[in-house]
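Hi R.,

Here's the chain you asked about this morning:
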Amino acid sequence: MSFDNQPIIVRGEYALHLSEALPEAKQQVIRHLMDLLTDNTIRLIDNVKLNNNSGLTQTTIQIKDIVDGRGLACPMPLLKTKVALRQVDAGESLYVVATDPNSQADITAFCAQSQKTDTTNPLLLLINKKTVSNSEEAIATKPEDSIDTIYHFIITKTDSN
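And here is the predicted structure, written out as tokens:
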């Protein structure tokens, strides 16, 4: 997929851009999970160039990778996030999803702590949202527990310079 054809998902004042380096399978997972965040501020825009002529005035967030912590107990989503952040450069973001309720407190505290201790690339938690998935697929596979709560995070490694 060429850079000019990268999808951009607009959320509020942000434009989310999926990195070219992301495999198509991961892009599909991200798109599916972003669909759970649907409201009037999220829409998928195809064939938008990331340049000054694109007409986008929002801040662009480049999603470098995803940490899928669904089904993992605390502290695994946080540990996987810490490992994945090693591959994220300043200005890039990591999309994290988890189902363990403790993940919300853990990841929020981790990002807040980085603001105090990491003077080079502190972390900025841009999205911290909980959604409930009640899909037909979930009902068919596990009817006794068909509603899944998913915690969504977008963490950006900032450049303090």
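One quick note: Confidence is low (pLDDT under 50) at residues 1-6, 40-58.

Cheers,
M.
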